[in-house]
Design a protein that fits this description.
single chain; 154 residues; alpha+beta; 4 helices; 7 strands
């Protein structure tokens, strides 16, 4: 009887560790107001884009004069639309790169992230639930991009 309880406790512990390390318990998408507010606090100008690659409820572009990349934010009606956009970006990544590139993808139930590194580009596509963030940067800006994404948990 005691042995069964310890096995169950062990399984629950393993499950919790898996959920915590993959972020499933704590990943919460930024809503449009949180995105806008966060980037404006970082002195980015946030505009509503009119040339969205995908049809979304919200499409924002955050840009800063002294930063050579933009942060594109899509908020979709549902998670299925966000998954389709993420997959399309991933499938067409070659549209954005000019040299041989390495891809590193991490996925979970409610999120997916691909980082593409080449000699000239540093591209991040990150989906959390019904939102997608796309950044086309350069290797020189990779640390800054990573820090921005870490701050917003993407």
């Amino acid at each position: 009887m005691m042995k069964n309880k310890s096995i169950i406790v062990g399984l629950i512990g393993v499950l919790l560790v898996c959920l915590i390390t993959t972020g499933c318990l704590f990943r919460k998408p930024l809503d449009k107001d949180e995105f806008k507010s966060h980037f404006e606090d970082l002195n980015y100008s946030v505009i509503e884009g009119d040339n969205a690659r995908y049809e979304a409820e919200t499409y924002y572009i955050a840009r800063k004069e002294d930063v050579p990349f933009e942060v594109e934010y899509y908020n979709f009606k549902n998670e299925t639309d966000a998954k389709k956009a993420y997959q399309d970006y991933k499938t067409n990544i070659t549209d954005f790169i000019t040299a041989k590139a390495d891809n590193n993808e991490t996925t979970g139930n409610s999120f997916a992230k691909i980082v593409t590194k080449s000699e000239n580009e540093y591209i991040v596509i990150s989906r959390v639930k019904n939102t997608v963030i796309f950044i086309l940067g350069t290797p020189k800006n990779s640390e800054e991009i990573d820090e921005i994404l870490k701050d917003i948990k993407y």
